[in-house]
């Protein structure tokens, strides 16, 4: 960045500070990862200069022959990585996972159609039709009712809730896992046009065949959103919905670590409508530089090293889960099948938001999260979500997971003295704490043994 350092010292300094933060702290937000230098070079290339509105062989702008070549290669690699049937196609132009999902809705549905998706506090995603109930008493009554159906709150948070009629299924109040019989009954009752699985905070594998069977019985399409699991699927470490669901969407920056963007996989008769939903339905020209990053990342996903990485993520996360349980933390669903765990902090001195901030000051970056059957709002929930993709990319192993679990309990123990303080007061106490500073230094020393390259 020698040129940037000369021409814009302010931006250069911000980037350098952020890189220092990433190098010296444990990034445990499951939706984040570190991209290879090759991916970063592709994303920062001259491809960002070119406007290429349209699809391969059918652009509205001249001079797009190399963009066609790039997009063709990205699609070819996606087909190989995700082992697509010959009857399936690929779109790599969606700018994000939410855009990808919205494109699927636009292609397959009419405004007002019913969609059936997972309840957000149980692990679902904003783009799956989320609307929030701001009335605390109503939220508490909903939890107390034990109903496995959520028909939405007063505040339509996401555009998907504004355009369509979402009904959301909840997890079992006992296991916090999918109740497939209940989902089938809800589908039979509401006759959705689309059933969606996937989300941000569901730590268990989903039985795609069961969901597809439910969808088929009610005449619905099945969309599997695997934004979080894409890299695990690519590395053959996790079950794939490809060939089972009608459509599969994913982001590319999480476990797939292929830069920012999204991929849509679908049956060929659907992908053509989805392409039109992307352009002209939602977007103009694609971000060619991001497609280049995706293409490079998909190339990396075809290597034996990537498969080893994907399997190590699972091993690391399951070890982290067991070690957290040894430290007497309660885990939602009592464990995990994939790349993150969800800690139930309801019986701990501190809940998700303040504890996440304290951990961050100690050099452990996580995020507070909703959890099943909890009436607390998403901005101040009871759970903490933490994962291992970035740590695994660093080269960390089971030994490091054990140490991290010990640090997390140690931090909760001495931070419990601040449990009755306001958030701002807790933050100030943590900033001044010698114990927090000591652990932050220990974390830094660990990170220095596993530098990011």
From TrEMBL:
<dbReference type="GO" id="GO:0035999">
    <property type="term" value="P:tetrahydrofolate interconversion"/>
</dbReference>
<protein>
    <recommendedName>
        <fullName>Serine hydroxymethyltransferase</fullName>
        <ecNumber>2.1.2.1</ecNumber>
    </recommendedName>
</protein>
<keyword id="KW-0554">One-carbon metabolism</keyword>
<dbReference type="GO" id="GO:0030170">
    <property type="term" value="F:pyridoxal phosphate binding"/>
</dbReference>
<comment type="subunit">
    <text>Homodimer.</text>
</comment>
<comment type="pathway">
    <text>Amino-acid biosynthesis; glycine biosynthesis; glycine from L-serine: step 1/1.</text>
</comment>
<dbReference type="InterPro" id="IPR039429">
    <property type="entry name" value="SHMT-like_dom"/>
</dbReference>
<dbReference type="InterPro" id="IPR015421">
    <property type="entry name" value="PyrdxlP-dep_Trfase_major"/>
</dbReference>
<keyword id="KW-0028">Amino-acid biosynthesis</keyword>
<dbReference type="Pfam" id="PF00464">
    <property type="entry name" value="SHMT"/>
</dbReference>
<comment type="function">
    <text>Catalyzes the reversible interconversion of serine and glycine with tetrahydrofolate (THF) serving as the one-carbon carrier. This reaction serves as the major source of one-carbon groups required for the biosynthesis of purines, thymidylate, methionine, and other important biomolecules. Also exhibits THF-independent aldolase activity toward beta-hydroxyamino acids, producing glycine and aldehydes, via a retro-aldol mechanism.</text>
</comment>
<dbReference type="GO" id="GO:0019264">
    <property type="term" value="P:glycine biosynthetic process from serine"/>
</dbReference>
<dbReference type="InterPro" id="IPR015424">
    <property type="entry name" value="PyrdxlP-dep_Trfase"/>
</dbReference>
<keyword id="KW-0663">Pyridoxal phosphate</keyword>
<feature type="binding site">
    <location>
        <position position="120"/>
    </location>
    <ligand>
        <name>(6S)-5,6,7,8-tetrahydrofolate</name>
    </ligand>
</feature>
<keyword id="KW-0808">Transferase</keyword>
<feature type="domain" description="Serine hydroxymethyltransferase-like">
    <location>
        <begin position="4"/>
        <end position="408"/>
    </location>
</feature>
<dbReference type="GO" id="GO:0004372">
    <property type="term" value="F:glycine hydroxymethyltransferase activity"/>
</dbReference>
<comment type="similarity">
    <text>Belongs to the SHMT family.</text>
</comment>
<feature type="binding site">
    <location>
        <begin position="124"/>
        <end position="126"/>
    </location>
    <ligand>
        <name>(6S)-5,6,7,8-tetrahydrofolate</name>
    </ligand>
</feature>
<comment type="pathway">
    <text>One-carbon metabolism; tetrahydrofolate interconversion.</text>
</comment>
<feature type="modified residue" description="N6-(pyridoxal phosphate)lysine">
    <location>
        <position position="254"/>
    </location>
</feature>
<dbReference type="InterPro" id="IPR049943">
    <property type="entry name" value="Ser_HO-MeTrfase-like"/>
</dbReference>
<keyword id="KW-0963">Cytoplasm</keyword>
<feature type="site" description="Plays an important role in substrate specificity">
    <location>
        <position position="253"/>
    </location>
</feature>
<dbReference type="InterPro" id="IPR001085">
    <property type="entry name" value="Ser_HO-MeTrfase"/>
</dbReference>
<dbReference type="GO" id="GO:0005737">
    <property type="term" value="C:cytoplasm"/>
</dbReference>
<dbReference type="InterPro" id="IPR015422">
    <property type="entry name" value="PyrdxlP-dep_Trfase_small"/>
</dbReference>
């Amino acid at each position: 960045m020698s040129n940037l350092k000369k021409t814009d010292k302010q931006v250069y300094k911000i980037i350098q500070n952020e890189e220092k933060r990433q190098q010296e702290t444990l990034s445990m937000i499951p939706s984040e990862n570190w991209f290879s230098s090759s991916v970063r070079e592709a994303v920062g290339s001259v491809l960002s200069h070119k406007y290429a509105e349209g699809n391969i062989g059918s652009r509205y702008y001249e001079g797009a022959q190399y963009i066609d070549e790039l997009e063709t290669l990205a699609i070819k690699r996606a087909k190989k990585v995700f082992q697509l049937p010959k009857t399936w196609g690929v779109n790599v132009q969606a700018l994000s996972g939410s855009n990808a999902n919205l494109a699927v809705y636009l292609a397959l549905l009419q405004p007002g159609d019913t969609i059936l998706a997972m309840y957000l506090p149980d692990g679902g995603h904003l783009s799956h039709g989320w609307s929030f109930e701001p009335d605390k008493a109503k939220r508490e009554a909903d939890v107390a009712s034990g109903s496995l159906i959520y028909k939405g709150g007063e505040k339509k948070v996401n555009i998907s809730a504004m355009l369509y009629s979402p009904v959301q299924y909840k997890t079992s109040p006992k296991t916090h896992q999918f109740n497939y019989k209940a989902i089938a009954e809800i589908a039979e009752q509401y006759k959705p046009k689309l059933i969606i699985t996937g989300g941000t905070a569901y730590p268990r594998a989903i039985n795609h065949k069961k969901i597809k069977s439910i969808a088929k019985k009610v005449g619905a399409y099945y969309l599997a959103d695997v934004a979080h699991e894409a890299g695990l699927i690519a590395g053959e470490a996790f079950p794939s919905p490809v060939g089972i669901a009608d459509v599969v969407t994913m982001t590319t920056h999480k476990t797939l670590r292929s830069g920012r963007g999204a991929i849509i996989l679908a049956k060929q008769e659907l992908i053509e409508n989805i392409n039109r939903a992307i352009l002209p339905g939602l977007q103009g020209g694609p971000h060619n530089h991001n497609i280049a990053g995706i293409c490079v990342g998909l190339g990396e996903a075809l290597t034996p090293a990537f498969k080893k990485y994907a399997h190590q993520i699972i091993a690391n996360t399951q070890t982290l889960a067991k070690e957290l349980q040894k430290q007497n933390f309660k885990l939602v669903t009592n464990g995990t099948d994939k790349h993150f765990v969800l800690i139930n902090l309801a019986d701990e001195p501190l809940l998700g938001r303040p504890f996440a901030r304290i951990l961050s000051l100690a050099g452990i970056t996580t995020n507070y999260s909703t959890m099943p059957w909890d009436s607390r709002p998403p901005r101040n929930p009871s759970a903490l979500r933490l994962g291992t993709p970035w740590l695994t990319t660093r080269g960390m192993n089971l030994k490091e997971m054990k140490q991290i679990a010990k640090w997390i309990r140690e931090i909760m123990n001495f931070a419990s003295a601040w449990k009755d303080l306001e958030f701002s007061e807790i933050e100030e106490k943590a900033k001044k704490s010698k114990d927090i500073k000591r652990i932050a230094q220990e974390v830094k020393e660990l990170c220095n043994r596993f530098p990011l390259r």
